[in-house]
UniProtKB/TrEMBL annotation:
GO terms for biological process: translation. The lineage of its organism: Bacteria, Candidatus Woeseibacteriota. InterPro entries: Ribosomal_Su5_D2-typ_SF, Ribosomal_uS5, Ribosomal_uS5_bac-type, Ribosomal_uS5_C, Ribosomal_uS5_N, Ribsml_uS5_D2-typ_fold_subgr. This is Small ribosomal subunit protein uS5. It holds the Pfam family Ribosomal_S5_C. Gene3D superfamilies: 3.30.160.20, 3.30.230.10. It comes from Candidatus Woesebacteria bacterium RIFOXYD1_FULL_43_18.
């Protein structure tokens, strides 16, 4: 009755609900009495490309476990992003730690014009047309969280306008 995995079939299981993107993996080394303790930190963006996106960061002794833990953390902290067609409804400036970002709506067909970490978050959220600029630090973690905070701000503006 169950599924078999023999050499001739390519069974991948049920389709995934969310798309996961690994943004950064850091190697962390800690000096201890017994030598160096090496761990890995993973930053992952998870989204369904329909308006839901989350960011997770986790540490583990191996890379695969760090990625798995960060995916679970990202799924726990999902944000719902309001979309107007294929873009965002409002322009927003946001600051998180040392990261400053500018996020603006764009006309249909222009695509995502934004830097690496910002682009990953916008694509995972399902935004197809937007203009973004990273103004502060080059730190990927801070920039990803600043982008997520900007999307939260936009959803807050939309909620306030509905009332």
């Amino acid at each position: 009755m169950g599924f078999s995995r023999n050499r001739n079939t390519n069974f991948e299981g049920p389709p995934k609900e969310f798309e996961e993107t690994v943004v950064q993996i850091n190697r962390i080394s800690k000096k201890t009495k017994g030598g160096n303790q090496i761990r890995f930190s993973a930053l992952v963006v998870v989204g369904d490309r329909k308006g839901k996106v989350g960011v997770g960061i986790a540490k583990a002794t191996d890379v695969r476990s760090a990625i798995r833990k960060s995916i679970e953390a990202a799924k726990r902290k999902m944000v719902i992003v309001p979309l107007t067609g294929t873009t965002i409804p409002y322009s927003v400036n946001e600051k998180f730690s040392a990261a400053k970002i500018l996020l603006k709506p764009a006309p249909p067909g222009s695509g995502i014009i934004a830097g690496g970490p910002m682009r990953v978050v916008l694509e995972a959220a399902g935004i197809r047309d937007a203009v973004g600029k990273i103004l502060g630090t080059k730190n990927k973690i801070s920039n990803v969280y600043a982008t997520l905070k900007a999307l939260e701000t936009i959803s807050g503006i939309v909620e306030a306008r509905r009332k």
